[in-house]
Specification:
It is globular and about 45 Å long. It has one domain. 58% of the residues lie in helices and 0% in strands. The C terminus is likely disordered. By secondary structure, it is an all-alpha fold.
């Protein structure tokens, strides 16, 4: 794998270190959002943004205490580009690493990572179990309820919005649109982990 990596190579690497269906599903959700924002923001590097999203939690399942640290070691040992390594690790800024998000792509990753979990959990509460009819006000209500999807850090989401210079409702609206653009539960029901079906 020299420098840049294909989507298939990235998936093989991800599944080498991650077996839990929930983690793999989350990786696909973030990948889809990153691809959407690459197009939406006019960068045209959809594959690269997607791979960053796919691999952002590469080390989380096996090395949760070294999250965003161990992933750098793994990627370097496979000869991946420093650009990819830095981008994927930057979402752990101020939590586990001191790699501050600088590129807009890194800021998007920080902003949508936790937020996709919150939106996904809110969607499952709806009769449709889908983001297709999700409204910003519903997500805002859940956002303000600290016990709902408590594992999704509101501080990280807020910080991501601030880094991008977007108001929180705008970030939520755009992330819902991103999730609608590929909704896995509709296209590939076999991708949905049992615990969230």
């Amino acid at each position: 794998m020299g420098g840049e990596i294909t989507r298939d190579e990235a998936w093989a690497l991800l599944t080498e270190f991650n077996k839990d269906s929930f983690h793999l599903f989350h990786a696909k959700i973030v990948e889809g959002c990153m691809r959407y924002f690459a197009r939406e923001l006019g960068y045209g590097e959809e594959d690269f943004w997607g791979v960053v999203g796919l691999l952002h939690d590469l080390d989380f399942e096996m090395f949760p205490e070294e999250h965003c640290v161990k992933s750098q070691e793994i990627m370097r040992s496979r000869g991946l580009s420093e650009r990819l390594i830095r981008a994927a690790a930057s979402h752990g800024y101020a939590l586990t690493v001191d790699i501050a998000p600088e590129h807009e792509m890194e800021k998007v990753l920080c902003a949508v990572d936790e937020l996709t979990g919150l939106i996904g959990a809110a969607a499952l509460m709806r009769p449709s179990k889908s983001v297709a009819d999700m409204e910003v006000k519903s997500v805002m209500k859940k956002f303000k309820s600290p016990n709902f999807a408590a594992g999704c850090s509101r501080d990280v989401i807020r910080r991501g919005a601030e880094m991008l210079g977007w108001e929180l409702p705008e970030l939520i609206e755009r992330t819902i649109a991103a999730m609608r653009s590929f909704e896995l539960t509709k296209q590939n029901p076999e991708d949905v982990p049992e615990q969230i079906q």
